[in-house]
Amino acid sequence: MLDPSHWQALQGEAGRVRAAGLLPADAARASEFALRVGPLYASFARQRLDARARDALFALARAAGLPQAFRALVEGEQVNTSEGRPALHTALRSDLGQSAAAREARALALEARGRMDALHAALEASDVTDIVSVGIGGSDLGPRLAVDALRDFHAGRFRVHFLTNIDGSAAQHLLRGLDPARTAGILVSKSFGTQETLLNGALLRDWMGGADRLFAVSANLGRAQAFGIPPERVLPMWDWVGGRYSLWSAVGFAVQLAIGRERFAQLLAGAAMLDEHALTAPPERNLAVWHALAGIWNRNGLGLSSSAVLPYDQRLSLLPSFLQQLVMESLGKSVRHDGSPVLAATVPVLFGGAGTNAQHSFFQALHQGTETVPADFLGVVRPAHEHGHHHDVLLANLLAQIEALGTGWPSEDAQKGYPGGRPSTLLLLDELSPHSLGALLAMYEHSVYAQSVLWGINAFDQWGVELGKRIAGELLPALSDDAVAAGDPVTRALLDEIRARR
Q1: Cα–Cα distances in Å, from 92 out to 75, 108, 237, 475?
Q2: Cα(422)–Cα(302) distance, rounded to whole angstroms?
Q3: Contact yes or no for 214/185 (Cβ under 8 A)
Q4: Exposed, middle or buried, 177 (CB in 10 Å: 0-12/13-18/19+)?
Q5: Residue 10 belongs to some domain of the structure
Q6: Does residue 311 contact residue 393 with C-beta atoms inside 8 Å?
Q7: What DSSP element (H or E) covers 138?
Q8: CB within 10 Å: which end of the chain, N or C, has fewer?
Q9: pLDDT tens track for 322-360
Q10: 140 occurs within a structural domain
């Protein structure tokens, strides 16, 4: 692990860069702070770091053992230390790992793919027209993003819908537009004990008139069978794949049904390409490492506590929500692997929205607010539509916002001046396809893992979400029974208020 001297040196570099003022916006910097990996082009030229600071960050990455950490991940070492597990999501899409654990995981993944294909064929031969995927968190955000982002690649055989929120209005609004006789459901829960998924799943089962067209993705065959879903309609999950890294597994069955087998394979291939890049490229040419180090620089060097994700493509409008879980659940830790306090601030608060809509929402704060918010801008060079002028206007706005945030604009009227110096990264996709989306999402996964290694924290557990769920279970009986005492005095007063208004 890194020690206090590493973080002190980083802050020293940051102080030097701050004192130097705005960095030059020139052609040399544009090329020296850019990388291309397959269909992804990344420009870090608008980040507030110079060549000396960048080299100090690369030295930090090597001191933390990032190349070795990527190998440990792929080979199935127990990187999830608090649960004593590997995190082998890379085995779902690539065969880079050579250890026995990695090869076994790869074999299980390929077997599951075969079962997905068989169930896919059976559904194609049926009268089913609509698929409802029921899950929450990592069992929902990744598949929902992929289905929405790849809408131009849908095979057309099925319409795929998602039911996640426990709020009954979500189910009511979705199901009123579907035919129960032509609908199938997929319940996605590793434990098959997730409250939201089981309640929505039971509602869907009853609405459909039984479980004959229900499928499950779970590690708990017994509970799925008790729910009415036989083993032959249960696809596997494993404890070596965390929910927010599970899109590439059978959790992505809904994605395959939407875009077809071949395009689902292309999605996995794009991620596999980035896996190989992250594993084999040296830090100085490694896109995931560059991205991670920009995050470390902004958080720990410049002391910036939030971050924005701004896709300039409506098909990626769900990317900020997906990354909120990937980043904030993975990196929202305050103790290291050994239980000692972290030596530096960890996760930023992440938010975002799709351009150009977001320009008319919160961009005022980005340009002239008192807080500096580093941002990832995303753009697509070749659109999937024929409205060329629309796309030119979209790209012009994308480039303009990045330049305005970076360079600013002076004015004699202080209220009309732009301070500039607001850092950003631009990620350009040649086109938005299954392959490029797979590469993009894998890049973010590896960037998050790299940051966790630098901070010495566990990116693969999420103990922070458990306490609220436990308390909710204790409070549930009190909502319907006045005699049940639960919660602290404030909660009990709130319970009284709710019961009095029913």
Answers
A1: 13, 9, 11, 39
A2: 11
A3: yes
A4: exposed
A5: no
A6: no
A7: none
A8: C
A9: 999 999 999 999 999 999 999 999 999 999 999 999 999
A10: yes
Predicted confidence at residue 272, as pLDDT, reads 98
Contact in structure between 308 and 352 (CB atoms under 8 Å) = yes
Place of tokens 């795929």: 160
Above 90 in pLDDT, residue 17? yes
Q: What is the pLDDT of residue 20?
A: 83
> In Å, what is the CA distance from 405 to each residue of 23, 373, 377, 399?
13, 10, 11, 10
Query: Which of the listed residues 246, 264, 282 is the one where a domain comes to its end?
Result: 264
**Residue of 329, 333, 445, 446 marked catalytic:** 329
Give the residue carrying structure tokens 């009123």: 176
How many whole angstroms separate alpha carbon 438 and alpha carbon 440? 6
What is the reported pLDDT for 19? 87
Give the long-range contacts of residues 165-173, CB within 8 A, separation 24 or more: 165/136, 165/196, 166/195, 166/196, 166/199, 166/200, 168/203, 171/200, 171/203, 171/204
The number of angstroms, rounded, from the C-alpha of 25 to the middle of its chain's C-alpha atoms is 31
Residues 6+ apart with CB under 8 A from 112: 235, 236, 249, 250
Query: Are the beta carbons of 272 and 265 closer than 8 angstroms?
Result: no
Residue 185's domain comprises 89-264
Q: What is the CATH number of the domain that holds 231?
A: 3.40.50.10490
- How wide is the angle at C-alpha 293 spanned by C-alphas 341 and 335, nearest 5°? 10
How many domains does the chain fold into?
A: 2
Q: Is 329 annotated as catalytic?
A: yes
* Mean pLDDT score of the chain: 96
Q: How many beta carbons lie within 10 A of that of residue 474, not counting itself?
A: 12
Query: Are the C-beta atoms of residues 38 and 439 closer than 8 Å to each other?
Result: yes
For residue 483, pLDDT beyond 80: no
Torsion over CA: 90, 297, 396, 24 (sign): negative
Among 167, 142, 107, residue whose Cα is nearest residue 217: 142
- How far is the C-alpha of 174 from the C-alpha of 162, rounded, in Å? 9
- Give the count of beta carbons closer than 10 Å to the beta carbon of residue 163: 23
Mean pLDDT of 238-254: 97
Identify whether 333 is a catalytic site residue.
Answer: no
**Residue 372, in any domain of the structure:** no
In sequence order, which residues have a C-beta less than 8 Å from that of residue 198 and are 6 or more positions away? 187, 189, 192, 227
Please identify which of the residues 387, 390, 416, 469 carries the catalytic annotation: 469
416 is catalytic: no
**Options 111, 232, 262, 360, the catalytic residue:** 360
Task: State the chain's maximal CA–CA distance in angstroms.
Answer: 73
Q: Is residue 215 part of a domain?
A: yes
Residue written as token pair 């941002």: 375
Domain ends where: 219, 238, 264? 264
